[in-house]
Design brief:
single chain; mainly beta; Porin; eight-stranded antiparallel beta barrel; 15% helix; globular
């Protein structure tokens, strides 16, 4: 082959490769938020901001619930000392675009592998594939966002991650692999058709049900604990029992969606070492939260809340130990307006309390940090006025 033909062939292959590469880049750019922008001529950054805004404005609201963190055997000799249950909650707005792909804007808070709070926020895109006539679909795509972790001094960490999903039109389970930590993380989304409710005025009968904007309430609780010192299980095999408790509070709605909630929660727990109980403690949390409520039925709201808590741990058996903590708190729950005044309220409240140098008795103490990792599941009634 002549040198001219070789040069022409090489140039042709190069142009084809560049064309293919350009096609891949263009296809990827279409998956970014700007691909959903109703104003595509605002420049690259403007398109992304407009696309995010459009998804938030016209998307369906989703409640995000973290499910499980898997620490694989091949990288975690201490996998049973790491937290596998990332209790928390989050909120998303999502659309299905004209090609049937899913686009999400989301924020979520959960308990990380070391029992610390971890926020994450970002954008996700998934191509969806129907599974025959089952009403289910598979999804595959990515998420890009920011997270913040205590073990990285709360510095922003970019998180471009792969994302898979399985679900239907109202419920999905998502999974991702996090390379730096070598863990598999799973969470769920319950999605509601609430767009019309957000933009339409309340019918008179519905407005009457929510016209009383202040609630006082009382709830019974089950408080799950998972004792840690921040690096893994507390040395010596100590555990803190999960027990029943109670909670009461007051909530005031600032407008149709936003509310302030102040509550007090109390539960009693046994500190155990292998084979026997060594002491008893009282755990209390005073929580102040800002909540966002969205309407799923005329008489039903679902909410996500976050704020700060004053927590206290006090020995009620041997000794006089007492310590306190000011810490984050996250909540998700529902409110059912049975009548204009009677409400039924349920929630999951996740406290991130930590205490120090817990005394067992006059002769023994657990040195260092003491994290009860308490998550409470609460159900009760309220009166609105």
């Amino acid at each position: 082959m002549s040198s001219f033909k070789k040069t022409a062939l090489a140039a042709s292959l190069s142009l084809l490769a560049l064309g293919a590469q350009a096609g891949i880049v263009d296809s990827f750019l279409e998956t970014l938020p700007g691909g959903a922008s109703p104003y595509p001529d605002a420049g690259f950054v403007g398109n992304q901001l407009n696309g995010m805004h459009d998804i938030i404005e016209r998307g369906r609201t989703g409640l995000l619930v973290p499910l499980y963190t898997n620490h694989p055997n091949w990288d975690y000799d201490n996998r049973y000392e790491e937290n596998a249950y990332p209790f928390g909650a989050g909120l998303s707005r999502g659309i299905i675009d004209e090609r049937g792909n899913e686009r999400l804007v989301y924020a979520m808070f959960f308990r990380d592998s070391h029992y610390e709070i971890e926020p994450i926020m970002g954008y996700a895109w998934l191509a969806r594939y129907p599974l025959a006539n089952t009403g289910l679909h598979l999804g595959a795509g990515y998420t890009a966002g920011l997270t913040f972790r205590q073990d990285y001094n709360w510095l922003p960490i970019p998180v471009p991650l792969p994302l898979l999903s399985l679900g239907n039109d109202w419920f999905d389970v998502y999974g991702t692999y996090i390379p730096g930590s070598n863990v598999f993380f799973f969470f769920s989304k319950i999605q509601f058709e609430d767009q019309a409710r957000r933009f339409a005025p309340w019918p008179e009968s519905v407005a009457s049900a929510w016209s009383n904007t202040t609630e006082i309430y009382a709830q019974g609780s089950w408080v799950k604990t998972d004792l840690s010192d921040g690096e893994g299980d507390v040395p010596g095999g100590f555990t803190l029992s999960s027990e029943a408790g109670y909670k009461f509070g007051i909530r005031h709605f600032l407008d149709r969606h936003w509310a302030l909630d102040l509550s007090y929660q109390r539960s009693e727990h046994d500190l155990n070492e292998p084979g026997h109980k060594v002491n008893e403690y009282r755990l209390t949390n005073t929580n102040l939260m800002l909540q966002y409520h969205f309407e799923v039925l005329d008489s039903m709201r679902v909410h996500l809340g976050a704020g700060a808590a004053y927590s206290e741990l006090k020995a009620t058996g041997e000794g006089s130990y007492k310590d306190h903590s000011i810490n984050p708190v996250v909540q998700t729950g529902f409110t059912w307006a049975v009548t204009d005044h009677l409400r039924v309220l349920g929630d999951m409240t996740v406290n991130f309390a930590h205490f120090h140098n817990v005394e067992i008795n006059d002769n023994r103490a657990l040195n260092g940090r003491f994290k009860p990792a308490n998550t409470s599941f609460n159900l009760g009634v309220g009166y609105a006025f």
